[in-house]
Amino acid sequence: MSEELKGLVACVTGGASGLGAGIVTQLAQEGVTVIAADVQTDKGEAFAETLRKQGLSVYFRHLDVTCEEQWILLVEDLETEFSGLDILVNNAGIIIRKRLSDLSLEEWNRAVSVNLNSVFLGVKHCRNLLARSTSASIVNISSTAGIIAHLDPSYTTSKWGVRGFTKAAALELVQDGIRVNSVHPSMIATPLTEAAPPGHMEANRYAIPMGREAQPEEIAKVVCFLCSRGSSYMTGSEIVVDGGMTTAGVAHMRAQFQEQYN
Q1: Contacting residues for 5 by C-beta, under 8 A, at least 6 apart
Q2: Which residues are the active-site residues?
Q3: Residue 181 belongs to what H/E stretch?
Q4: Cβ(16)–Cβ(47) under 8 Å?
Q5: Segment (H or E) for 239
Q6: 226 vs 230: CA distance, rounded Å
Q7: 26 burial type by CB count under 10 A (0-12 exposed, 13-18 middle, 19+ buried)
């Protein structure tokens, strides 16, 4: 445990499982009091209790990130129960793996609501609490789909929106002493990716020079860096953590096939 983050209070959305759970765990191991906010109440409460038994300060709160009223109630709870907030990690997200012609308007709106509107609501309603902190940091989890196009149009659009919103928010919130940055992972070993159609993960590995998916803790450690004083001169930045995919994914994939068929 380092001393940089010890004693701070963080809220992580989508914190009951997958990458969110990895971020919650890593922050808690750094001495942060973490509120894992999620719609998965049973799973979230069990997860938080497990970490508390390990001596970590982790608590669960139910939150539908698309509901403004629930954000308002959560902020009130953070102020009364935890005396404020230093770190907000907007991690909650979904993937609707459908091509444009097969995607309904309801599905499109759902993806945008969970992946993008939730980030706006979190930043809007947590701003005043964060402004009282001397170590305020917001980390928005986007994706490589916010850097290059993926085949899921609703996911790609929402993740590019997170990237753009992060930059706009960084410009406005700098006056409050709040830093806002985004993280752009490629494929991560989580239940979300494991539920992908057959061949999805294998195809992604072809495009990643490192040849593998990330572990949640690898992304979580980058998030911790962005919450620490080590990144004190960073705001509006986008950090790509992708095993080299956006650097040379196509070239790497071409080389793989050439080796296979030559």
Answers
A1: 27, 30, 31, 32, 224, 227, 228
A2: 155
A3: strand 179-185
A4: yes
A5: strand 238-241
A6: 7
A7: buried
pLDDT per residue rounded down to tens, the chain (262 residues): 567 899 999 999 999 999 999 999 999 999 999 999 999 999 999 999 999 999 999 999 999 999 999 999 999 999 999 999 999 999 999 999 999 999 999 999 999 999 999 999 999 999 999 999 999 999 999 999 999 988 899 999 999 999 999 999 999 999 999 999 999 999 898 876 676 677 767 777 778 888 889 999 999 999 999 999 999 999 999 999 999 999 875 555 555 555 554 4
Please report, as a single letter, which amino acid is at residue 49: E
Q: For tokens 């004190």, name the residue.
A: 232
CA neighbor of 13 nearest in space, from 110, 93, 77, 104 = 93
Q: What are phi and psi of 178, to 5 degrees?
A: -105, 125
Angle between helices 118-131 and 153-173 (to 10 degrees): 20
